[in-house]
Amino acid sequence: MEVEIRDSEDGTLRFSISETNPAFANSIRRTILQEVPVMAIDEVEVAANDSVMDDEILAHRLGQMPLTTPEGYLLPSKCDCREGRCSNCSVDLTLEAEGPGVVRASDMESSDTEVIPVQDKSPIARLGDGQSLKFTAIARLGFGKDHANWQPAVASYKYMPVINIDQEARDDWEECVEACPKGILEESDGELNVTDLEECTICGACVEACPDAIEVDGDPTKFIINVESTGAMSPERIVREALEILSDKCDEFSEKTDKL
Fold first, then answer.
1. Which residue ranges are tagged as binding site?
2. Global pTM?
């Protein structure tokens, strides 16, 4: 198997893998979405809430705020405290505010300065004159398969496009060029060229416009994988942890089949 990093910036990682199959590419995607643990607000204890927002909606909004996730925390199910409230498996984010004004994520105080909202300007609630808001939000590690709050990233993959062009089939390529919605086809010196193969979505629009000259398909052994982190952790770390989880599962499967 070959791996090549295509792009890595602004919390997004794009890489290609070859000499593999769709099942493996999809297993990476599913593991990232469902089984890489990250911190998220799991419980909210509301002491005062005079805002127009119900407590349940407030808790839902807080749960959807991505939190930075350092290494070292335990899953509540693996912690000796058994209650999910000790410093080894949870973080308290407290807030006490009075109106008027907009209460934002940065107004919360965390018991661990390494676990904070990714977007500190995210609004929590608007308070009017005389209104107050006071709560303690409890963050814990969790899995995306249990709730979307714990999804660390948006992950997707696609086949590496394969575009075959019969340069002898046409003299005029204008119709083919205009048909491509991604604008990656251009005519030069009487020939049709692909300017950015990886941008092709294999939609087939160019084939419909020029069926006599163009064939588009996907390579079933090579894939482009995109990982866009929520900010909870770097995309590189997300992929690394996903691969470690997959490796552990394969080892466990192998051990169990050996006993059959």
1. 200, 203, 206
2. 0.89
